[in-house]
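Extended Data, panel c. Modelled sequence:
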Amino acid sequence: MIDAVVAIERNEFNSVRLGTTPLVDENVFRRVCALHKELLPACVIRPTHGDTTQLAQEVLAGIVDAAIITLPLKHSELHIEEIRRERIVVCL
C-alpha cells in the first residue's frame, strides 16, 4: 500500500481500479470513492463490477487494485478487512 501511495505521488500512475459487487451498499462505495478523492485528488477512480469470486481473482491478477465485496471470502493471498456488517432479512 505504501508503495502504491509513493507511486501515485510520483505520478507513476494516475488511476485506481476499484471493484464492487452488486449487493454492496452504494453509499459505502460512494464514501470510499469520496475518501479516495480527498486523499489523492489527482488519481482517477475507475469503477468495475462483478461477483465476489471474479473480483477476488481480478485483484490477484492485478486487473483490479482493490474491491469492496460481500462476504464470505477466504483466501490466503488476499488481505480482507471487514468494513461493515449487516443482517439480511428475507421474506418469502
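The first strand starts at residue 15 and ends at 20. This feature is highlighted in the accompanying rendering.
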